[in-house]
UniProtKB/TrEMBL annotation:
It holds the Pfam family AhpC-TSA. Belongs to the peroxiredoxin family. Prx6 subfamily. This is Peroxiredoxin-6. GO terms for molecular function: 1-acylglycerophosphocholine O-acyltransferase activity; peroxiredoxin activity; phospholipase A2 activity. It comes from Oryzias melastigma. It catalyses: a hydroperoxide + 2 glutathione = an alcohol + glutathione disulfide + H2O; 1,2-dihexadecanoyl-sn-glycero-3-phosphocholine + H2O = 1-hexadecanoyl-sn-glycero-3-phosphocholine + hexadecanoate + H(+); 1-hexadecanoyl-sn-glycero-3-phosphocholine + hexadecanoyl-CoA = 1,2-dihexadecanoyl-sn-glycero-3-phosphocholine + CoA; a 1-acyl-sn-glycero-3-phosphocholine + an acyl-CoA = a 1,2-diacyl-sn-glycero-3-phosphocholine + CoA. Its EC number is 1.11.1.27, 2.3.1.23, 3.1.1.4. It comes from the Eukaryota. Keywords: Antioxidant, Multifunctional enzyme, Oxidoreductase, Peroxidase, Redox-active center. Gene3D superfamilies: Antioxidant, Horf6, Chain A, domain2, Glutaredoxin.
Length: 221
């Protein structure tokens, strides 16, 4: 079955984009990357999503994350659609600040498991779902999100998840429900109390629980 799992090396595919032909790993360089797919150009939800991504482009840049979008239309369509997207942002005339991959033969969409069987074009062919792939500097898949065509994504959540990925890539911690940068994090279960004490100079606090088990260990990273 096509698709890609967490920890897999992301395929070093070649593709035509609005910024020319790319080889994906070379495009990423040593950066983190985000690839997000869209069902189709010139559709309403997709337009709001791309516009949001363009608006918060600096947030991705700050985090060292290179952005690239994908849909199953041509480079020419992507270029024309990009003008609508920027106009929707009241920024007509400015270029979309990231490339869009033209997957008009659906090759990549099949390879990466991105097609939505419930949404079809007028010829009965499936459209791309709303996938998000976050790729680490080691080119491995760190996070994937898959929404159907009918549900637009939340880019605040995507940035929050990237903050968690980047923190937990550096420190032996995990981020709890609704965590935001600056808040306390959890010590991962595989660390002993002694290891945790030496790794986290800000201290570790434990919440008492009816089970008596000391697994809810918080620290300030
Ligand atoms: C949209 O982007 O609005 C959309 C695209 C395909 C199916 C449903 C909605």
């Amino acid at each position: 079955m096509p698709g890609i799992l967490l920890g897999d090396v992301f395929p070093n595919f070649e593709a035509d984009t609005t910024a020319g032909r790319i080889k994906f790993h070379e495009f990423l360089g040593n950066s983190w990357g985000i690839l997000f797919s869209h069902p189709r150009d010139f559709t309403p939800v997709c337009t709001t999503e791309l516009a949001c991504a363009a608006k918060i482009e600096q947030e991705f840049k700050k985090r060292g994350v290179k952005m690239i979008a994908l849909s199953i239309d041509s480079v020419e369509d992507h270029k024309n659609w990009s003008k609508d997207v920027m106009a929707f942002n009241d920024n007509a005339g400015s270029p979309l600040p990231f490339p869009i991959i033209a997957d008009d033969n659906r090759e990549l969409s099949v390879q990466l498991g991105m097609l939505d069987p419930d949404e079809k074009d007028k010829d009965g062919l499936p459209l791309t779902a709303r996938c998000v792939f976050v790729i680490g500097p080691d080119k491995k898949l760190k996070l994937s999100i898959l929404y159907p065509a009918t549900t637009g994504r939340n880019f605040d959540e995507i940035l929050r998840a990237i903050d968690s990925l980047q923190l937990t890539a550096q420190k032996k911690v995990a981020t709890p429900v609704d965590w935001k940068p600056g808040e306390k994090v959890m010590v991962i279960p595989s660390l002993s109390d002694a290891e945790a004490a030496s790794l986290f100079p800000n201290g570790v606090t434990t919440k008492d629980l009816p089970s008596g088990k000391k697994y809810l260990r918080y620290t300030q990273p």
